[in-house]
Write a structure and sequence with these properties.
Low-confidence stretches of chain A: none
Strand order of the largest sheet of chain A: 2-3-1-4-5-6
Oligomer: heterodimer
CATH architecture of chain A: 3-Layer(aba) Sandwich
Structural class of chain B: alpha/beta
Helix content of chain B: 25-40%
CATH class of chain A: Alpha Beta
Number of strands of chain A: 6
CATH topology of chain A: Pyruvate-ferredoxin Oxidoreductase, domain 3
Radius of gyration of chain A: 16 Å
Largest interface: A-B, 68 and 69 residues
Shape of chain B: globular
Largest sheet of chain A: 6 strands, mixed
CATH superfamily of the largest domain in chain B: Thiamin diphosphate (ThDP)-binding fold, Pyr/PP domains
Shape of chain A: globular
Chain lengths: 198, 632
């Protein structure tokens, strides 16, 4: 088999949470670090409050864009039920980083399905390494729920095959150009995420 | 949407297949691009619109987009059109006859198959069109090839005087990869339109003459295919199995079996049989890896080439490495290679007995819903309350009305079908359904795409259908693109804005049967609907509020629920707005002994944009502006 080591990151959440942006930032960072990168995107129906996933793969050469089930190294779960939904995509030596802020869909509100009582507990039963924290609360306390994806990226920044600073700079550079007033708050969000994961 | 500019001094960028196609067309000196939005192809034209040298337009449907491209090609300009797989069904009428005539300057048709059904009503293998229309078909394997093949497509088109199909899938369109690109080369064509009625006017006489020419062209391209650099034999050390593959499937094969010899088809129709025979002679067994239909397999077997295909591989879904490895291991009599996945949790308490088909995990589904404050919410609330109806639906966000809590659609099949099917439901009704009311629901873009004709059929043939025309001034589901209902073109410039009332009148609906209603005004909407379904003539109720995703929509201050007043009646939940959430449930016993389920609610104030729909369903007046509630 080839010696091509590929890092597989599965980003999963709900339409509107910034899943695609987080995956884009990861991809651009990997690119700037000299990796070949492929990233899948989802559009159309899935965005209407539905499940959104992005597969990010980077290495010396990436061929197939989809992460095979059981081969994800990192699962970034923007929502706990979504993290549970995709947990078996992780390899057993992988890591799940999970935001514990719940988002109930209408089918649960309407009583058609139940929200799992303890999705994090279910994930714990699998034995995989995971870190669960309330990234949503951190974002809200900083004043903007949209910061949750910066928090989540901070949380995984120490798990990547390139320096955490590279990921941070990629995020901040995006704001430096167009919205410099948001640089400081995003830096805070990143650092709080980084700490929360430890 | 904005195209990210390249890094300074660099000609490498991370881009999606869709962007790569647009870039490739521009660099090839293409001057015209036309399309109708459709997942996964929509962004091709959005990116194309960034290049000022290309005339770009949203066409009203895919057939028109191809006809526009044909016209431009005949006028001497390289042209392309883009569509999703079902769009080519619509455009096929033009393709099937134009193929006999040929082209002027290069003509490329980009068709994107939504393999895996991310957002379509069916799965279709567009490779059939190459065979059916006798035109060459290119299949890029990733974004870099999408960029390159688009340019080669124009060359091929001119070299052989044929339209060329560039066949993409979701895995090309919506996967971003690194693309090395170049600069635009102008395509010079001083000649312009060349009068040639004996070629371009497809009467029976002309068609009869051109049929053998088309077959001769096809044979010529087949000979070219045998030696084309688009079709490659790749050597490998493991000679037990050789693979025949094309498009993005090649990536899966190469990743799963890096040491296997294979033929990678880039020009996959006409098929280079000799090239594949050459591979067959180098390996013990040949396996064709193609997604969806066994097209290549059937053709290769008919040519006498021994191989396996769907005997060991599925017809449905993606043939990714985790599917390929066990299938081939089985063929070779080997143990299935182990991955080390996380063991799925097995102890999930009921009542959530649902296994997610994509992941095998027991967790609730999260289907797409209408957005918070969507103007369609009120419409489906009303539809769900009207009895004895059959509701004929169409393609768009409003198709979601089939789901919970509305369950207010009975049929949906293809663009514009709501009209014809409703008419048929009426004319074909049996005695038992004598009093049934037939309602059709259609959006503005779908109406202009292919619904207008159906409405004309209804009025011309004395039909009895109540039509809801949901004008939200956008092509909603694909992302809110402009159209003749928004009054802006693809560049945001002011343009024709269709007056739907006048249009419906012109198509034969009586003026008194046409109503324009604000869909947030529930009582008015309900009354109009209830009254019109009783009248045995075609009626059109036009709703006139914008999609919440476009700039015409203005958010209002959020609402909230006064806990003290909420009685748990759950009426507001029937609207289906995602911002209304249940806080607790209670079962109460009524005086007559029967049980009643109560559901107390709250409004997610961060999500609410104050459309004011839910207060209209609230008997106890428990919903009020958040600002007023705080002041109390």
């Amino acid at each position: 088999m080839s010696e091509n080591k590929i890092t597989n990151i599965l980003v999963a959440g709900i339409g509107g949470q910034g899943v695609m942006t987080a995956a884009e930032v990861l991809s651009q960072t990997a690119l700037s670090q000299g990796f070949d990168v492929k990233k899948t995107e989802v559009a159309g129906m899935a965005q209407r409050g539905g499940v959104v996933t992005s597969h990010v793969r980077f290495g010396a050469q990436v061929l197939s864009p989809a992460i095979p089930p059981g081969e994800a190294d990192i699962l970034v779960g923007f929502e706990p039920a979504e993290a549970l939904r995709w947990i078996s995509h992780l390899r057993s030596s992988g890591v799940a980083m999970i935001n514990t802020t719940r988002q109930e869909p209408p089918v649960v509100s309407l009583g058609l399905y139940d929200y799992p009582e303890d999705p994090i507990g279910e994930i714990a039963k699998t034995g995989v390494e995971y870190h669960a924290f309330d990234a949503g609360a951190i974002a809200r306390d900083l004043g903007n729920f949209k910061l949750v994806n910066t928090v989540m990226l901070g949380a995984i920044s120490e798990l990547l095959p390139f320096p955490a600073e590279a990921l941070k700079n990629e995020i901040l550079d995006r704001f430096r150009g167009r919205k410099p007033e948001l640089v400081e708050i995003n830096e805070k969000a990143f650092e709080l995420g980084r700490q929360a994961s430890l | 949407m904005s195209a990210v500019p390249p890094l300074a001094g660099s000609n490498r960028r991370f881009m999606s297949g869709n962007e790569a196609v647009a870039r490739g067309a521009w660099e090839a000196g293409c001057n015209l691009a036309a399309a109708y939005p459709g997942t996964p192809s929509t962004e091709i034209l959005e990116f194309a619109a960034h290049y000022p040298e290309m005339y770009t337009e949203w066409s009203v449907n895919e057939k028109v987009s191809l006809e526009v491209a044909i016209g431009a090609s005949l006028a001497g300009s390289r042209a392309f059109c883009a569509m999703k797989h079902v769009g080519l069904n619509v455009a096929s009428d033009a393709l099937m006859s134009q193929t006999l005539a040929g082209v002027g300057a290069g003509l490329v048709i980009a068709v994107a198959d939504d393999v895996g059904l991310s957002s379509s009503q069916n799965e279709q293998d567009s490779r059939f069109w190459g065979r059916f229309a006798h035109v060459p078909l290119l299949e890029p394997a990733d974004a870099q090839e999408a960029y390159e093949y688009t340019q080669q497509a124009f060359e091929l088109s001119e070299q052989f005087n044929t339209p060329v199909i560039l066949r993409l899938t979701t895995r090309i369109c919506h996967v971003k990869g690194v693309v090395n690109f170049g600069e635009r080369r102008e395509h010079e064509n001083a000649q312009g339109f060349i009068k040639d009625p004996g070629r371009l006017i497809m009467t029976p006489g002309v068609a009869r003459k051109r049929l053998p020419m088309m077959f001769e062209r096809e044979a010529e391209i087949q000979r070219y295919s045998e030696s084309s650099n688009l079709n490659i034999i790749m050597d490998g050390s493991d000679k037990r199995i050789g693979f025949v593959t094309s498009g993005p499937t090649y990536m899966h094969v190469k990743e799963a079996f890096p040491d296997a010899p294979l033929v990678k088809l880039g020009l996959s129709y006409p098929v280079p049989f000799d090239k594949i025979r050459a591979l067959a002679s180098q390996v013990d067994q040949l396996v064709v890896v193609e997604e969806v239909e066994p097209i290549l397999e059937t053709e290769l077997k008919a040519a006498g080439i021994a191989l396996l295909g769907k005997e060991i591989l599925s017809r449905i879904g993606e043939l990714s490495p985790n599917v390929l490895r066990p299938a081939i291991a089985g063929l070779l009599g080997e143990a299935v290679p182990e991955t080390a996945p996380v063991k799925a949790p097995i102890e999930i308490k009921p009542p959530a007995p649902r296994i997610d088909p994509a992941t095998g995990i027991n967790v609730f589904p999260r289907p797409p819903t209408m957005c918070v404050a969507c103007p369609h919410l009120g419409i489906y609330y009303c539809l769900s309350k009207i009895r004895n109806t059959t509701i004929s639906g169409d393609i768009g966000c409003y198709t979601l009305g089939a789901g919970h809590p509305w369950n207010a659609l009975d049929t949906t099949v293809c663009m514009g079908a709501s009209m014809g099917i409703a008419h048929g439901l009426d004319k074909g009704r049996v005695e038992a359904d004598q009093d049934k009311k037939i309602i059709a629901v259609i959006g503005d873009s779908t109406f202009m795409h292919m619904g207008m004709q159906g409405l004309l059929d209804i009025t011309y043939n004395n039909g009895n259908v109540t039509i809801l025309l949901l004008d939200n001034r956008a092509v909603g589901m694909t992302g809110g693109q402009d159209n003749p209902a928004s009054g802006r073109d693809i560049h945001g410039k002011e343009s024709t804005k269709v007056d739907f009332r006048k249009l419906c009148e012109a198509l034969g609906v009586k003026p008194e049967r046409i109503h324009e209603v604000n869909p947030y005004e529930l009582p008015t909407l309900f009354t109009a609907l209830r009254d019109e379904v009783k009248i045995a003539e075609p009626s059109v109720i036009i709703t006139n509020q914008p999609c919440v995703l476009i700039d015409y929509y203005g958010a209002q201050p959020a609402l909230t629920v006064d806990d003290d007043k909420c009685t748990g009646c759950g009426n507001c939940l029937d609207i289906g707005c995602p911002a209304i959430l249940v806080t607790r449930r209670e079962t109460v016993v009524k005086p007559n002994g029967s049980e009643k389920e109560l559901a107390f609610v709250k409004i997610e104030s961060g999500a609410c944009t104050g459309c004011n729909l839910c207060p209209k369903t609230c008997g106890p007046d428990a919903i009020l502006p958040l600002a007023d509630y705080i002041r109390q």
